[in-house]
Amino acid sequence: PLADVPQNNYGLSLERVSDDNQWMFGGRVNHLSSQDRIPPNQPLITTSKSATTLDLYGSWAPPMKNNEMGAVTVNFGVDNVTDVSYRRQLAFIPEAGRNAKVSLNWKF
Do strands 72-79 and 23-32 pair parallel, antiparallel, or not at all (unpaired)? Predict the structure, then answer.
């Protein structure tokens, strides 16, 4: 029995950058295996089911003066695109469902 050991987590990411280096797109598949090896005398610790999630993300870095890159970057993405409901081992609440995000980075 392994009550305090989280389940195995596997991930695969693929990214593609445009020829002009302004755009980057990627995807990530995460798989959490189940954790069902719990000692019988631990009533507060429950098992965790396996789950597979898909994240999609990207960024855009427009060229600046003199074709310099990277002063401004817009990042965007959607985590857990398929809105899978899952809980990590030893967590009492489930992980967030689908989550969209956008951020702007400015280096000066």
Answer: unpaired
**Residue pair 78/54 in contact by the 8 Å Cβ criterion:** no
The pTM assigned to this predicted structure is 0.80
Dihedral pair phi/psi, residue 13, rounded to 5°: -120, 145
**Which stretch, 23-27, 43-47, 66-70, has highest mean pLDDT?**
23-27
**pLDDT reported for residue 6:** 80
Sign of CA dihedral 46, 49, 9, 92: negative
Count Cβ atoms below 10 Å from residue 77 Cβ, excluding itself.
Answer: 19
Phi-psi region of 58 (alpha: psi -120 to 50; beta: other; left: phi over 0): beta
